[in-house]
Amino acid sequence: MSADKTAVVILAAGSSSRLGYAKQLVHFRGKMLLQHSIDAASHFQFCSNTVVVGARAHEILEHTELKIFSAVINEDWEEGMASSIRLGLKHAIDKVKDLEHIIVLLADQPFVNVQVIENLIAKHIESKSDATFCEYNGVVGVPAIFSKTNFKALEQLTADQGAKKLLKDQNFKYNTVKFDQGTIDVDTAEDVMRLKQLE
Questions:
Q1: Is the pLDDT reported for residue 163 higher than 90?
Q2: How many domains does the chain have?
Q3: Which Gene3D superfamilies is this protein grouped with (predicted)?
Q4: Contact, 163 vs 104, CB < 8 A?
Q5: Which range marks the domain in which residue 163 is found?
Q6: Rg (Cα) of the chain, in Å, rounded?
Q7: What integer pLDDT is reported at residue 42 of this predicted model?
């Protein structure tokens, strides 16, 4: 698994409707949540680095240091997460024709860091499976890595389907790596309060 054939996509297009303002810009330990994901992924110098924004795109980008990342605006963000996955993957493939892997991150998991991504990559290399997900509190989810054998399935996601839809396919082979703090994300004001207590 080489960095020059691996892309990373950060999904940051949601409207944060339950919170009432952009959760991507919630501060935690001196920086905004989206910035945490960008900074962690920038450590690796992947061949393609994309942030998919949608709702409140200009506000979010105004306050974000993209570093090595390119931002693409998902005009169809109201469709749900699937549209951002499709757009991010298309942007990566357009840039790197022989792309072999894509890593998907979210903008609201404050404890995603370099070590979490390294653990995910190591497990994916070791297992040689088609996909590797993080697992937290019995839940399988992102961050995740997908090999090119899954690109077509990702391109066919619709509505608010995340990549976890693939898990329902009995022929889908995947592995997981523990990420206990992956349970901590931000959707509501109560989530923000709990996060502040962890600073």
A1: no
A2: 1
A3: Spore Coat Polysaccharide Biosynthesis Protein SpsA, Chain A (3.90.550.10)
A4: yes
A5: 3-197
A6: 16
A7: 97
Within 8 A by CB and 6+ apart from 156, the residues are: none
* Residues forming beta bridges with residue 10, ordered by sequence position: 51, 105
33-64: pLDDT as tens digits: 999 999 999 999 899 999 999 999 999 999 99
CA-to-CA separations, 172 to 6, 84, 116, 165, 167, in angstroms, rounded: 20, 22, 23, 10, 6
How far is the C-alpha of 159 from the C-alpha of 142, rounded, in Å? 18
The DSSP annotation for 14-73 comes to: ---TTTSS-GGG-EETTEEHHHHHHHHHHTT--SEEEEEEBTBHHHHHHT---TT-EEEE
**Is residue 69 within 8 Å of residue 42, measured between CB atoms?**
yes
Judge if pTM exceeds 0.85: yes
DSSP 74: -
CATH of the domain at 138: 3.90.550.10
Instruction: Tell me which long-range contacts 152-161 makes (C-beta under 8 A, separation of at least 24).
Output: 154/85, 154/86, 154/89, 154/102, 155/86, 155/89, 155/90, 157/81, 157/82, 157/85, 157/86, 158/79, 158/82, 159/79, 159/80, 159/82, 160/79, 160/80, 160/81, 160/82, 161/80, 161/81, 161/82
